[in-house]
Amino acid sequence: CRGCLQQFQQAQFGLATLVNKNVTESKILADYLRAGGKEVHDLLTECMKKLDDGVYVTQASVAGRLKSDTIICNRCANLNFSELAYQYRRDIPREALPVAVRSRPDCHWGQECRTQWSKPHHAERFNHICVRTRFD
After folding, report:
1. Contact criterion met (CB below 8 Å) for 109 and 134
2. Cα gap 111→126, rounded to integer Å
3. Are 19 and 47 in contact (CB under 8 A)?
4. CA gap 136, 132 in Å, rounded
5. How far apart are CA 110 and CA 107, in angstroms?
6. What is the pLDDT of residue 93?
7. pLDDT tens, N- to C-terminus, the chain (136 residues)
8. Half-sphere exposure of residue 15, counting CA atoms within 13 Å on the CB side?
9. Is 13 helix (H, G, I), strand (E, B) or coil?
10. Closest C-alpha among 67, 40, 70, 69 to residue 56
11. How far separated are the first and last CA of the chain, in Å rounded?
12. Burial of 24 (0-12, 13-18, 19+ CB in 10 A)
């Protein structure tokens, strides 16, 4: 694996498309963190604590229950941290978000929406931190 293995908690991440590969939702998270004086490392620390406590779980792990000290490759670290960041963003109280963010209607495809990646206008107009409601 050319030296890409490390403990999950020691991996390095960016925020640009961290939340569900959605630039808008990732920016909302980044703005929230910045307003609270936090950086991506603080997000990682909080997510790792919730992961270890069993509050957050990931589906991308194929090696059983993932923990902060699990040895993981960069690709898997990114996939799993993206899931944790989504859960963190989901748990931000609506009142703590700007009015423009919390007033967006939910996309009926929710987090499964494929348009949120390819059409920035759609990602900006609709909330994607929600479950799919169409065709349930």
Report:
1. yes
2. 11
3. no
4. 7
5. 5
6. 96
7. 556 899 999 988 988 889 989 999 999 999 999 999 999 999 999 999 999 999 999 987 666 788 999 999 888 899 999 999 999 999 999 999 999 999 999 999 999 999 999 999 999 999 999 999 977 6
8. 20
9. coil
10. 67
11. 40
12. buried
Residue with tokens 């859960």: 87
Length of the chain: 136
The C-alpha R_g of the chain, in whole angstroms, comes to: 15
pTM: 0.90
- Token pair for 92: 């931000």
The tokens of 129 are what?
């931190």
Q: Is 130 left (phi over 0), alpha (psi -120 to 50) or beta?
A: beta
